[in-house]
Amino acid sequence: MGRAPCCDKTKVKRGPWSPEEDSTLIRFLETHGTAGNWIALPQKAGLKRCGKSCRLRWLNYLRPNIKHGNFTKDEDEIICTLYTQMGSRWSIIASNLPGRTDNDVKNYWNTKLKKKLLAGKVIGHTTTNNYITSNNFLEKSCNRKNPHDLLDSSISTTPSSTYDHHHHNHLLFPSQPQIIFSSPPPFPILTDHMGYGSSTVVDSTHEISLMSSDPTTLHFSHHGHVSEFSTNLKNSSSSIFTSSQDGGSSSVSVSADSSSLAMENNNNINKSLSGLAVEDEGGILMDFSFGIGGPIYNEFTNSTSSGIWFQDQKASHDIIHQEAALSYCCYPNLGDHQSSSYADIKPPPQGLINQSVINQY
DNA sequence: AATTAGCCCAACCGCAGACGT
DNA sequence: TACGTCTGCGGTTGGGCTAAT
Predict the structure, then answer these.
(1) In degrees rounded to 5, what are phi and psi of residue A300?
(2) Contact, A100 vs A94, CB < 8 A?
(3) Can you list the domains of chain A with their CATH numbers?
(4) A5: confidence class by pLDDT, cuts 50, 70, 90
(5) Å from A122 (CA) to B11 (C1')?
(6) pLDDT (tens digit, 9 = 90+) per residue, A263-296?
(7) Which nucleotide has the shortest C1'-to-CA distance from A5?
């Protein structure tokens, strides 16, 4: 048996709100507030509406400082970035856009932004963390003043051929977004641009690789520098949670003896997840995706494959068996904590990375 | 001018978690 | 602890508008 309906639908008005209803609701809320009970509100206010309908009308349309229409380029990028990192968590995404409602953002994404994105006209980028636990995550992310900050705030959509010229890479998608660095990054980073878009690896020598995460083909230009990453998993047991591209979440646990990693993925699409996590004195570098390591069940080809393309170039023959490469990265220094906030994340000291050897999951 | 197709977005629906008793 | 109620959320729907034919 399902739950009881919140109101008798035959006795309440439905459909578009009239200006009179709007003003009645506004007047009532300005005088009385919700009194903590939306269900009882319409009766008190003299509205023939369901409480949920009143709440929605207020939150999405009538409440002060709501912005409608005309999303700015900045807003586009914020939405894309956060959608990449956490999927359709519209309320959280909207909380980073003053004046925007989750409904607005959702509609905008579904009707316009997704298409823009597919056309390569706008991009999002992930920074080096995935801790979307706070509503002001983005603000923190964008305002980092740490000298180890990696990304110049400028993100370009100029054709990648220019990029190729500067960085001697084989670029795969002419319309791929670019991340422009103001200075060589102090350590390798991995980013993922969009769900099934491409990933970029930048290493300490400022080499940049692009990896396609096209579900049907996978190409990439360069991957060797990842082997310079760090290594010893010294932590006692720790867990790290992050989001995955389709809105599910993933967790990574380091075993007590630091000898192994366990990865778990609860997203709706991908049946397995594997990846790489390394640690040095500065923190843990994690990169995990359902395209790294193996075995990987490929829903698109209905097959299982394995291969570790992060190991070194020797493994390159396995690459064609991999599917979407979704890379996430963060530098938390978790210690024994079971959870972390953004404040815990800090980049490892410069120089340490290069002394280490790869530890491959 | 009439019709059709597609788009946009406000509103609705139902689920899940929080909260109170 | 169990249960019922309320709220918040994400997915979906459908009416109105506009562009295309």
Answers:
(1) -75, -35
(2) yes
(3) 19-62 (1.10.10), 73-118 (1.10.10.60), 137-355 (no CATH)
(4) low
(5) 29
(6) 333 333 332 223 333 333 322 233 333 222 222 2
(7) B14
